[in-house]
Amino acid sequence: MPHYQISKRIDDQPVETETTEFSPDHGAVLQFLGVVRELEDGRPLQGIRYSCYEKMAWEVLEKTIAEALAQFGEHGLTFHHRLGFVPVAEPSVIVRVATGHSQGAFDLCQHYLKAVKTTLPIWKDPVFLS
Predict the structure, then answer these.
(1) Per-residue pLDDT at 2
(2) Of 49, 68, 54, 71, the residue nearest 9 (C-alpha)
(3) How far lies 61's CA from each of 2, 30, 64, 99, in Å?
(4) Which of 18, 26, 36, 122 is least buried, going by the fewest C-beta atoms within 10 A?
């Protein structure tokens, strides 16, 4: 029986990108990093300040995970969205999924990214260079 772990964070700590552990159960591990770009609408940035309605964000994230488990079956997940100021060239979000096959990993990653973009109550406020 495959062993999958789910880890989720929404906080002001830097996103850890070097924590992948591999298992013989995981035929596919896919990682997405959302990194702060240097330009927003053609204007140079210092970074982006992220804020959220935390209680609702946790509720939406739990619902999103439950939907993914129902639709795609058991899988591993590392999810971390950083809050507060995130400078240019640093990740603001990581979605890492582990599952038995590559197509499932791509589908799962898209499922979680869609939630980040459309339903998670996390807002970004660009901080432009003067």
Answers:
(1) 65
(2) 54
(3) 23, 19, 5, 19
(4) 18
